[in-house]
Amino acid sequence: MRLLPVLALPLAAACGAAPGADHPAREGIFGAAGPSEFILLTARGELVSADIEPGRVVGPDVNLGVYAAGGQRGGQAVRGIAFNQAVSVTTTGQGATGIVGAMPLQLSVTRAEEGLRARGLVAGALSDYRLDDRQLTGQIGRCSYELTRTGRTYEGSRSCGGQPHHVTVLLPRGLSSWNDAALATTLGLLLGA
User: Fold this and answer.
1) Is the pLDDT of residue 94 over 70?
2) What is the reported pTM?
3) 115 contacts 130 by C-beta, under 8 angstroms
4) DSSP letters of 26-91?
């Protein structure tokens, strides 16, 4: 996954400022976020952003369409490009199957009182993650997350094969209108690469 550096972050952030420290640039990024914007920002200054609209996910590294899947009641297809990988995934309320680049995506998705849980493969990597009103946790592709909701954002640690570092994720309200498997697939693509 190619992450975009946030040049506006203070030099202290790049030099290892305390995780979770509030920097004006960080506050400005999240303060300026629109109601349909997805943002992932790390303490290292890495940024992933995308605008989530009805039927679309568009950003510097993502261009996905979400379509009604013909012949499948309530099914949706997620197709396009994410981080230079072709995406073709078909979802139902309980699962998602398809490819990301040359790697399989296959998820079993369940919903209970505690929220959404997805298990399976994201771009060929074993994944097991949960999302609810309080937490975003688990393994998504090659990255593990331990985030807790704080106001509009989820904050905590992420590790993608190295040392854990602080990360903040803003999820837009628009994702709640998608079926569970399309939501789990989109999160897997945005957070797991």
Assistant:
1) yes
2) 0.80
3) yes
4) HHHHHHS--TTEEEEEETTSEEEEEEEETTEEEETTEEEEEEEPTTSTT-EEEEEEETTEEEEEEE
